[in-house]
Write a structure and sequence with these properties.
The chain is mainly α. 84% of the residues lie in helices and 0% in strands. It starts with 10 loop residues before the first helix and ends with a helix.
Length: 145
């Protein structure tokens, strides 16, 4: 996917008309899916209650009493499935970002190599200075004793 195009760029209509699938609409359409699925659950449960009343009044009353709990469970399942989709979408984004890591590691390796070279050169200079200063320092210490 093209990293230069944000997910919400251009709105819903522009995203729907994106024939090359350069934008993800999942997150934008999720609230719409949630409302549609909850409405469908309400319609199905209302239809079941109506059918139960057509069959018998007792079955209709029992179904009507149980219907709110069934609706609650249906909405919870719908919500869980949609949250799973959100989680999968976020994992996909993390994986896409991980694909960039090797390039960053190569850049860091080159920078570390430069730093190591500079530290080695500095170490050689310090050793040269130490060997130069080392003899007079030993002579001064002997005189002080």
């Amino acid at each position: 996917m093209d990293d230069n195009l944000p997910e919400n760029d251009g709105g819903l209509l522009r995203g729907l008309l994106d024939w090359r699938f350069r934008r993800y609409l999942t997150m934008q359409l999720l609230p719409v899916f949630y409302v549609l699925l909850v409405m469908a659950a309400v319609v199905v449960i209302a239809g079941m209650v109506a059918l139960a009343f057509l069959w018998s009044t007792t079955a209709g009353l029992i179904t009507l009493a149980v219907a709110p709990f069934v609706l609650l469970i249906a909405v919870a399942v719908i919500r869980a499935v949609l949250e799973y989709l959100v989680m999968a979408h976020r994992i996909m984004r993390v994986v896409e970002n991980m694909e960039r890591i090797p390039g960053h590691v190569d850049q860091l390796t080159a920078r570390v190599d430069v730093v190591v070279t500079q530290v080695d050169a500095l170490g050689e200079k310090v050793n040269d200075m130490h060997s130069t200063v080392g003899l007079p320092g030993r002579i001064l210490r002997r005189w002080q004793q």
